[in-house]
Structures are given as structure tokens and as C-alpha cells.
Amino acid sequence: MRALLATAERVIVARGRSRRDLSPAETELDALKGPTGKYRAPIVLAGTTLLVGFNAEALAEL
């Protein structure tokens, strides 16, 4: 996951209907995890944007 963050210029963390746009420098790995402690799905790297979690609007932007 750190390697994906290193290549991304923008990180979108989706949790249901909410989403947060972050820079890779301010993103902590715990912010990418769900309530079970595993990384949220899906994890999509599109160009320089990393999407973690499902949000229909964010996915359409990619």
C-alpha cells in the first residue's frame, strides 16, 4: 500500500456516501482501513489518483 501511495498525487478515501480528498503526504494507512482492520475495497490506481473504498461519484470521476 505504501508503494501505491508513493506513486499517487491524489488520494480519495470513500466510506459509503462520504469521501475525503487527501494528498499522499497527509494520508495515514489507518485512514484506508475499514472497521475490520483490512483495507477498504476496491483499491483503484487510475493515473495518479488512488481511490480506496467505493463511492459511485468518485469512481465515475476516474
Describe it for me?
The protein is an alpha+beta fold. It has helices at 2-7, 56-61; strands at residues 10-15, 18-22, 43-46, 49-52. The model has no long low-confidence stretch (mean pLDDT 93). It has one domain. It contains 2 helices and 4 strands; from the N terminus they run αββββα. A 4-stranded mixed sheet has the order 2-1-4-3, with no helix packed on it. Strand 1 and strand 2 form a beta hairpin.
Question: What is this structure's SSE topology?
Answer:
Layout: H1 2-7, E1 10-15, E2 18-22, E3 43-46, E4 49-52, H2 56-61
Parallel strand pairs: 1-4
Antiparallel strand pairs: 1-2, 3-4
Short description:
Helix content is 19%, strand content 31%. It has 62 residues and is of the alpha+beta class.
List keywords for this structure.
62 residues, alpha+beta, four-stranded mixed β-sheet, 2 helices, 19% helix, 31% strand
User: Strand count, sense and closure of the main sheet?
Assistant: 4 strands, mixed
Strand content: 25-35%
Strand segment tally: 4
Strand order of the largest sheet: 2-1-4-3
Distance between the termini: 19 Å
Number of helices: 2
